[in-house]
Design a protein that fits this description.
Blueprint (H helix, E strand, L loop, with lengths): L1 H9 L17 H29 L15 E2 H12 L2 H32 L12 H48 L1 H21 L2 E3 L2 E2 L1 E2 L1 H27 L20 E7 L5 H4 L4 H17 L3 E8 L7 H10 L6 H8 L6 H7 L3 E5 L17 E3 L18 H13 L7 E7 L25 H6 L3 H5 L2 H26 L4 E7 L5 H4 L6 E8 L2 H5 L7 E2 L9 E3 L3 H9 L4
């Protein structure tokens, strides 16, 4: 209003001003004409960045640096030359196919990143699609069903958007090449020369990032070779599975050196070699093992330890369990499915054949588990049948101390029973390692409701996983807890007839171990009976429950036959 008054005051009053002609706005087409060139140049630059960025993108998070994208992709050089040489219609078809194909390879790279981060290996298109269902279950437990569904929908939309955008980007860059054919031809010739010179000299911008890049071609070729190998794997596995020297061994000749013993086979989730050797964990976990050694020795127990090389890392615990039990190398879901559909003799079914009562204490089983029949258990206790009334601790349905208490109440503590063989995975050290339980007086465990406040007091997975140092600290604490719970159980309930075999199923994810960690896990045998340990004196395992870095290392699939041979001397 003030501005209007001032303007009005300054206007001459001698004669009325003629009505102002309305300002002519630029016509819409004129505005668009000025905007289009700028928008077109921006779109072209973005299209080239998208295509070149996708070609140079590695399939491991650790390899992504700003320098990674300052290289010459051979796929771009070859692609430009081919597109320039083709007539219009084939050129357009090729651009569309190349765009969609590059988008799919980019998705494959992203999936590889996830697999390298968690399982320390690339995605296997033949076998690993079966892991999407367990991944969805994991996601549901972590963020709820609505969050899991939202995440799946988001991923699908992102994939579709990437395919569309990459195809459009390829079409746009192709049009630019044709429009500036002479310049493009000269640039291509220069790039070809530069690529070959860099390749010949081995020039690198950073370590493992050569200037003459072949990332996308190498990844596609590697997965193609992987598919061929995976498709042949079934035939190889069937041949391996036919070899079983114990297949027809009668029960009276099996495990005769363990007659009358209770044998407890216990897996500690994510208990890997790094837990006792990596400086980030070794002091605290080593302290828990040293304390366990002292308490077990005071209770009259002796032990021997070594390492086994697991068939998996970062996850896939069931593959490791199947490998140890069956004596076959189970490193993918297809092998696992084939195995559990067979009549292969497992450790648990060998004990059953030799007249032990066999039970599976499975706190991690929360839904139907038909493959449990394969292991030959007389009884399976899952999460619902163990009487637990407390809260879950993320993916650990119950604390290990409760699992061990339930085992004692349901099976080992029963009067008048015969010899018992039990397999028991302990899950408190399962990712995401938050919240964590604490040890309490064994007399107060009860139905598990006492653990309720601990779950509420502990940090959430989201809080822990935002900080790498905090994640590693919680992992370390979880391993300490599981080891303490197990050794304390043996100290409290062990007797002259107990033989405990405990080991890790696999190393944790590379986030905790670093890239290139072994797949080794510690294994120990604990008993009061010196004769049981004398049977394995030829194994050269070390005394105590903490193997040194020089301890023997076996493949996990060799354990079944060595164990059955050592304790079935009349075979």
């Amino acid at each position: 209003m003030v501005v209007l008054v001032v303007v009005r005051t300054l206007t001459p009053l001698a004669e009325p001003a003629a009505p102002a002609a309305p300002r002519e706005e630029p016509a819409r087409p004129q505005r668009l004409a000025r905007i289009r060139p700028v928008a077109g140049r921006v779109a072209t630059v973005m299209a080239w960045l998208l295509v070149i960025g996708a070609l140079l993108l590695p399939n491991e998070l650790a390899k992504i640096t700003p320098w990674t994208f300052l290289r010459i992709p051979v796929e771009a050089v070859v692609g430009i030359a081919v597109l320039l040489a083709l007539p219009a219609r084939p050129r357009r078809v090729l651009a569309i196919l190349a765009g969609a194909g590059l988008a799919l390879v980019t998705v494959l790279k992203a999936v590889d990143m996830g697999f390298y981060s968690v399982l320390d290996r690339p995605f296997d298109p033949v076998f690993d699609t079966t892991l999407f269902d367990p991944a969805y279950v994991f996601l549901t437990q972590a963020v709820g069903k609505a969050g899991a569904i939202g995440a799946v929908i988001g991923v699908v939309l992102l994939v579709v958007a990437l395919i569309v955008l990459m195809t459009l980007a390829m079409l746009r860059t192709t049009r630019q090449l044709v429009t500036h054919r002479q310049t493009a031809t000269r640039a291509t010739a220069a790039l070809v020369l530069a690529w070959f010179v860099c390749a010949a000299l081995g020039a690198q911008v950073v370590s493992d990032a050569p200037l003459a890049a072949t990332d996308t071609a190498a990844i596609a070729k590697g997965h193609a070779a992987q598919i061929r190998t995976s498709l042949r794997d079934q035939e190889m596995f069937e041949g391996e599975a036919k070899v079983d020297v114990f297949r027809n061994t009668p029960g009276e000749r099996l495990l005769t050196a363990l007659r009358g013993k209770d044998v407890l086979l216990t897996f500690i989730e994510s208990y890997g070699r790094d837990a006792i050797e990596d400086p980030l964990y070794a002091a605290q976990v080593g302290s828990a093992l040293d304390d366990g050694n002292r308490r077990l020795a005071a209770a009259g127990f002796d032990s021997r330890s070594a390492f086994l090389t697991s068939s998996t890392a970062g996850g896939g615990s069931w593959l490791a369990h199947a490998t140890l039990n069956s004596g076959l190398w189970i490193d993918n879901q297809k092998r696992y499915n084939t195995l559990v559909s067979s009549d292969r003799l497992t450790l648990s079914s060998a004990f059953s054949r030799a007249s032990w009562r066999t039970v599976g204490i499975m706190p991690g089983v929360t839904q139907a588990w038909p493959e449990g029949r394969f292991y030959g258990y007389d009884q399976i206790y899952d999460a619902k049948s163990m009487g637990y009334q407390g809260p879950a601790f993320a993916l650990a349905t119950m604390p290990d101390q409760y699992t061990l208490t339930a085992f004692e109440r349901l099976e080992r503590g029963r009067a008048g029973r015969g010899p018992l063989m039990a397999e028991m995975p302990l899950t408190s050290s399962h990712a995401p390692w938050a919240p964590l339980p604490r040890m309490i007086d064994w007399n107060n465990v009860g139905d598990g409701s006492v653990f309720g406040p601990m779950a509420k007091e502990g940090e959430s997975p989201e809080e822990v996983w935002r900080d790498g140092d905090k994640t590693r600290a919680h992992y370390r604490q979880s391993i300490q807890y599981s080891l303490t719970a197990l050794t304390s159980y043996v100290e409290r309930h062990g007797d002259d007839n107990l033989v405990l075999i405990f080991l890790g199923d696999h190393q944790p994810a590379p986030l905790l171990t670093g890239k290139g960690a072994t797949h080794d896990v510690p294994i120990s045998i604990v008993t009061r009976d010196r004769g049981v340990l004398d049977r394995i004196s030829g194994w050269q395992w070390e005394q105590g429950i903490k193997p040194s870095k020089d301890a023997p290392v076996w493949r996990m699939d060799t354990f079944r036959d060595r164990f059955l041979t050592a304790y079935s001397p009349l075979r």
